[in-house]
Write a sequence for this structure.
């Protein structure tokens, strides 16, 4: 018998003030502090996955913003990539509504930066040949196929001559890919970028897609995009969904503190002597993003909420906020 742990988090939205907090006196950036408190939990998993909701578009002419975006434009210094690797991330999904923020050059450069830092990725491709390859991870003898898709790219068009740049949610194509992958692996994991922003419950379309993909062989479905948590559900011993993992890293959005709360989801997977694979345990660690002033300046950290509540240096307002976040997380995740 083999048992492994998969850990997953939601959106990694490393935005402007988080970037400014990471800037060093010599002009370089260090994001180690951002993940220091959660890295031990990420590293203890056998496979850790997150959604990279930014780009490594670089500087210069090729990093120009796309002018057709229906939302904010994201770009992060390259130093984030080795920090993510060091924090414990093995796989980053890149199919989301911000992957085209700096056009095709920014999308391709993002993949190149991930490749240089030894981080596996899926959801976008830098060539047609690459788009035909499925990400399969062999973790202690359990094979996991990982697929990633997005419902949109913020009205930024993907070039008609290169549709393979971004995996869009096209049901017939996804069903074919699930069925093909099912023949090659023990477990099929989908990371879907879908749903309505700032809604705590999945919409009808999300539920339809989840049911359809489960019917055709998916085992684990992880959701992102709403920027807040949405419920999880278990279907027997072989199927699990969480409709939205919330934000793992973000500034406060829409003045809503719950856009800075998320979870570190942990799934234990067992493969028995007959080769049957099942989900044996589901757990999560509630997290939040904390920004504070220190003697050295402002810092931003992702912190495990329960760990933070054990500290004796918190002010009453901080304790109250963390307790509200903890209660909110528990309530949302128990809805289904």
């Amino acid at each position: 018998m083999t048992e492994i742990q998969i850990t997953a988090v939601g959106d990694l939205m490393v935005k402007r003030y988080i970037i400014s907090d990471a800037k060093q006196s010599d002009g370089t950036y260090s994001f180690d502090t951002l993940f220091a408190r959660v890295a031990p939990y990420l590293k203890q998993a056998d496979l850790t996955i997150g959604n990279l909701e930014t780009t490594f578009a670089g500087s210069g002419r090729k990093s120009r913003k796309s002018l057709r975006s229906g939302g904010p434009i994201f770009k992060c210094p390259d130093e984030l990539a080795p920090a993510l690797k060091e924090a414990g991330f093995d796989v980053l999904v890149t199919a989301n509504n911000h992957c085209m923020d700096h056009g095709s050059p920014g999308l391709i450069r993002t993949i190149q930066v991930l490749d240089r830092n030894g981080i596996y990725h899926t959801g976008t491709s830098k060539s047609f040949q690459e788009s035909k390859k499925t990400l399969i991870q062999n973790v202690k003898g359990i094979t996991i196929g990982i697929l990633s898709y997005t419902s949109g790219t913020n009205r930024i068009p993907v070039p008609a001559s290169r549709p393979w740049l971004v995996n869009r949610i096209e049901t017939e194509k996804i069903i074919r890919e699930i069925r093909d992958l099912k023949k090659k692996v023990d477990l099929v994991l989908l990371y879907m970028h879908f749903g309505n922003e700032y809604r705590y419950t999945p919409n009808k379309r999300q539920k339809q897609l989840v049911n359809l993909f489960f019917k055709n062989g998916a085992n684990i479905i992880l959701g992102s995009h709403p920027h807040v948590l949405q419920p999880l559900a278990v279907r027997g011993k072989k199927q699990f969904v969480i409709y939205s993992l919330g934000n793992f890293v973000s500034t406060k959005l829409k003045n809503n503190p719950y856009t800075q709360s998320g979870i570190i989801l942990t799934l234990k997977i067992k493969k028995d002597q007959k080769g049957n694979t099942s989900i044996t345990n589901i757990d999560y660690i509630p997290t939040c993003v904390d920004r504070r002033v220190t003697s050295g300046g402002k810092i931003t950290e992702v912190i495990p909420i329960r760990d933070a509540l054990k500290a004796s240096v918190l002010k009453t307002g901080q304790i109250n906020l963390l307790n509200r976040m903890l209660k909110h997380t528990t309530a949302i995740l128990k809805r289904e």
About this structure: The radius of gyration is 19 Å. Residues 2-333 form a domain with the Purple Acid Phosphatase; chain A, domain 2 fold (CATH 3.60.21.10).
